[in-house]
Amino acid sequence: MAELESIETAAEHERILREIESTDTACIGPTLRSVYDGEEHGRFMEKLEARIRNHDREIEKMCNFHYQGFVDSITELLKVRGEAQKLKNQVTDTNRKLQSEGKELIIAMEELKQCRLQQRNISATVDKLTLCLPVLEMYSKLREQMKSKRHYPALKTLEHLEHTYLPQVSHYRFCKVMVDNIPKLREEIKEVSMSDLKDFLESIRKHSDKIGEMAMKQAQQQRNLDNIVSQHPRISGGKKSKKEACAGSDLEVKNTSPMSEQDSGILDVEDEEEDEEVPGAQELVDFSPVYRCLHIYTVLGARETFENYYRKQRRKQARLVLQPPSNMHETLDGYRKYFNQIVGFFVVEDHILHTTQGLVNRAYIDELWEMALSKTIAALRTHSSYCSDPSLVLDLKNLIVLFADTLQGYGFPVNQLFDMLLEIQDQYSETLLKKWSGVFRNILDSDNYSPIPVTNEEIYKKIVGQFPFQDAELEKQPFPKKFPFSEFVPKVYNQIKEFIYACLKFSEDLHLSSTEVDDMIRKSTNLLLTRTLSNCLQNVIKRKNVGLTELVQIIINTTHLEKSCKFLEEFITNITNVLPETVHTTKLYGTTTFKDARHAAEEEIYTNLNQKIDQFLQLADYDWMALEPGSRASDYLVDLIGFLRSTFAVFTHLPGDVDAHSTMSGKVAQTACMSACKHLSTSLMQLLLEAEVRQLTLGALQQFNLDVEECEQFARSGPVPGFQGDTLQLAFIDLRQLLDLFIQWDWSTYLADYGQPTCKYLRVNPTTALVLLEKMRDTSRKNNVFAQFRKNERDKQKLIDTVAKQLRGLINSHHS
């Protein structure tokens, strides 16, 4: 082990020696430090000494080898030293001679320098005097111009004096008075021009509303002219055409078409006004003060200060203009005044932009417009959200469109305004939905839910014109006759069309494609069908006082409305010119809405019937301890069967002129009848097995059997046509087999055939049979305490115990 360590130490010392030989002297410290950090520095010193001795021997060998050459070089150097000393002496003598001969030349040069300096000073003095005389003349001229209040010439003179002359002579004392007076004169001119600018700013603040009104009126006139040109290529008679169009619109209003409803008139321009020249911003406001002030500040070198002041003041005015009044949402005039002020502000800025060079630039205008756009959109979102009147929202939309078109005509981007109009469109749809919710409620509440009687051809054609209904057999019938649906069907159908017209009205002038308009109308109409109309129908169906006849009529009505959905699809296609086969076209969900309403009405019929059955069953008063049955079925059950017969008779009177009607009414009647019978059977079974009935006799069971037979007789009588064979009787099969088993006491057959498909008592559950048997066994025990000593009673009790035991075995085996 020691030998291994010595080998490693020797290798390490060898590495350090190589590093010392190859490393710069300044970096040798860390290497030596590593030697003294170890414990073998003595041995290292020995190795170092040995290495030094080796290098000394090599140096000695090298010197011996080159010694003769070294001696020759020393000899040559000694010869050169002598020659160099001779050369140095010669150079020193030459320099001394040159210095003594150059003294006279230096003196002459100094005299020449002084002469040149005097000549330059004289020339500079003449130049300065030449500059001073024009300065004095210009200053004298400036004072005269200021006295005569000629500020523009004085300003030019001041500029020449300050920038051309005074900088050349400003170091003279006589110029101090001039320099002190020039700033005072400049400030005086600034104050006069700034006063004019303030008057200008106040003027445009007052006139912004009027300027905006005129600009929007010009935009409206241009739009009306474009519409007239597009509708009537021949411009002659344009005014007449417009009046005729208004007359046609009035006629359409009388026809109750919302598509033809006029705008509130807030944006219409009178015919007389169309012929008048609408004044522009330059006619309403004198812009000369701002031009003069700009020129003066430019000349004074304070243009940037003037621009900053102007922009700062206009920004303040912009913030005031963009601050809407708190009651703006109450009337359209509030919105109009708000828009007029904004338009007026930017019309002025646009005029300043194009008539001045740099007072405002496009970046500044864009910045102001971005701020105005964001604040305007935020204000419109806030205030429009308070509006619940669809007509006011529609008028607001028209005003926003005119506002956007006006500013777009001045080059301002207005895409965000149209995007916001799409948001307002959602709000408009919500207000329409609320309005139509009330309309639908009124229609449904005022309906008599009876088929519409028709006494003559005129009334028949009127209803057929309001609702797409065709029935060849009904047309052949003589008057008077009845439509299968009630009055709310054509009314609801027409109101859906009115809603579509109202939606279409909002999409005008929004620069939307036909596909986008079609999609917007379909989505809004879907909301109307699936939310508004659906909720109204559901509320009518769920009302407490709704009768069976009303529910049946609702089923018929929703069936016809469901069929009319394809006509609504065609109607939307006709007004938007977008074919339903187009990709991404939204489909109407009316079919689903009316199906859901019809299903809800059917479920309500079934629920009402079951609730009525439960009310009758609450009158049941069985004597479960009776020894003998009665002679006929219970009174409550007889009344219940009578109610069911009269109820299902209503379905037989449903209009069956059309196969669809009869098929529909038949299916509803069959389902209702089957549901009622099943519910009655289940309720009777629960009545027999309920925990409160602890004991019952065979006589009570026989009386219960009479009631079940009455139910079976009702099922066999065919209260509703369409059931095949004994289908309706199967609703009572569980009760029938259970009662037969106990009345006939046919336990041997039941126990022997249990589990087989052909079992006579296949529908009897062992658990149910055991519960009923326990009730009868308890009765036997209680009533025959002393009779148990008789052999027959003891045998019967044993038989019950045996059957109960076997039933428990069947139940346990079934669970296992």
Automatic annotation (TrEMBL):
Sorted UniProt keywords: Coiled coil, Exocytosis, Transport
InterPro entries to which the protein is assigned, alphabetical: EXOC6/Sec15, EXOC6/Sec15_C, EXOC6/Sec15_C_dom1, EXOC6_Sec15_N, EXOC6PINT-1/Sec15/Tip20_C_dom2
Region of interest (Disordered), ranges: 231-264
Any one cellular-component term (Gene Ontology): exocyst
Biased composition regions of type Polar residues, renumbered to the chain: 254-263
Ranges in a coiled coil: 45-104
Superkingdom, taxonomy of origin: Eukaryota
Protein's job: Component of the exocyst complex involved in the docking of exocytic vesicles with fusion sites on the plasma membrane.
Protein name: Exocyst complex component
Taxonomy of the source species: Eukaryota, Metazoa, Chordata, Craniata, Vertebrata
Gene: EXOC6B
